[in-house]
Amino acid sequence: MENVATHEDWRVCFAEAAPGLVLFARQFVRSIADAEDIVQEAFVKFWRKQHPIENRALLFATVRSTALDLLRRDVRRARREASAYAAAEHSVAPPEFDAITESQQALAAAVDQLPAEQREVLVMKIWNELTFADIGTVLSISQNTAASRYRYALAALKKNLISHE
After folding, report:
1. CA nearest to 46, candidates 36, 55, 33, 37
2. What is the CATH number of the domain that holds 90?
3. How far apart are CA 129 and CA 21, in angstroms?
4. Are residues 87 and 104 in the same domain?
5. pTM here?
């Protein structure tokens, strides 16, 4: 008999994975609400395709592709609105982090300054504990490239944080 996940398994998986997935999706959109919508939509896609519940890399890849689809839809809509109303072109705001202390604010500012490729690897590695192999799968890059981006991100953070002291 096949190893089929129950509804309870999916509920538990969502409850455990959602916070990290929302943090990951937050890189692509302006608000937590949009990030939560992306995660919910991605999780439904993942569930409907009956992917193995244990495949975290594929779940992150689904969130990433859903977020990029949303961004592409937003850009297309903005272009249509701009031509219809002769308005300014739509731009995506960089992610913002809620920070309480001065050191958290400095870290958030340093993370915001990272190139998107490094930032997404950093978020997946540190806050979501994915392996470089999983990150490579999510981003369609080699695990060595993922590791390099992670090292570059850490070096840039160190440099930016030392210069702020």
Report:
1. 55
2. 1.10.1740
3. 11
4. no
5. 0.56
